[in-house]
Amino acid sequence: MAKKPSSKVEYVKCNLCGADDYSVVFEGIPTEGDEENRYKSSGNEVGNDQVVKCKGCGLIYVNPRLRPELIFKGYSEGSDETFVSQAKGRELTFSRCLKFIHKNIDKDLAKKKGKILDVGTAGGSFLHVAKEAGWDVHGVEPNKWLCNWAKKNYKIDVKPGDLFSQKFPSKHFDVVTLWDVLEHVPDPKKTLKEVNRILRPGGYLVVNYPDIGSSLARFMRSKWVFILTVHLFYFTPKTIKKILTSTGFSAKKIKPHFQTLSLGYLAYRMEPYSKILHKVGTAVVKALRLGKLQVPYWLGQTLVLAKKEKDLK
């Protein structure tokens, strides 16, 4: 007999269209317990939750799932040395991303810069790169330890908490970024509506996400590396465009998103998928002293630059 979800778990309707009619994509049960270690920036526990697809709009999401307050509590607590160990690789990633942003936003804004907010800042690598380029940087991050790390190592003041607790003024920022964030939040539509509110008219939103419509995801299915317990939503180019349009944005550029991490870290991340590859890969990397080699890679992520087209009522 299948295990019934506990009081820690909730069933949810489609976040995009509000429908409550879905088909099961991957069978499973909600993952409970040890939220502090599971819900952190470097969390890589393979997902065994039930993943469903809305019959109305096609959005793919976890249902049922852990309650939002428990998820936020998990993200807020504990340290994450594993994540910040890859700060150098993330700086390289975000240097490329910032060039992409400068190339595709208004030329005057790209030249003079302005106010940029990073939601889910983690250790602050993106804001460090943006600050070096001349932007007035602001960040918000639920994990207090990561906020302190950013302040100590990058001299950046990152506000602890979630986006809504900050109560930013309306039409305040020129650019808002969500790096590896939208798939984690319990209510992406509400989050994007708040981003719309705090963005100036014609401002820009930058989002990257694990694309379940990518060729790699479709080939790997439930074995895809981004089917993780920390991911609540799995967008495709079609559903990301729909949710952006419904919150007052239009997607201007969509492209594959490449990240850079050390070879040693990538070998470490293989463990949940193949203990043999993890063991052999780690041994080879160590023997050849390639652990710190920074490697760009793509495993099915997508990057979107969108523009605020209208205020929401």
Give an overview in words.
The chain has 313 residues and is α/β, with parallel strands linked by helices. It folds into three domains: 9-76, no CATH class; 81-259 and 300-308, Vaccinia Virus protein VP39 (Rossmann fold), CATH 3.40.50.150; 260-297, no CATH class. Helix content is 35%, strand content 24%. It is built from 13 helices and 15 strands. The strands form four sheets. The protein has a seven-stranded mixed beta sheet, with helices on both faces. α7 links the parallel β7 (136-141) and β8. α4 crosses α6 (125-132) and α12 runs antiparallel to α13.
Mean pLDDT metric: 90
The count of strands amounts to: 15
- What is the helix/strand order? EEHEEEHHHHEHEHEHEHEHEHEEHHEE
In CATH, the architecture of the largest domain is: 3-Layer(aba) Sandwich
Uncertain runs are none
Q: How do the strands of the widest beta sheet line up side by side?
A: 8-7-6-9-10-15-12
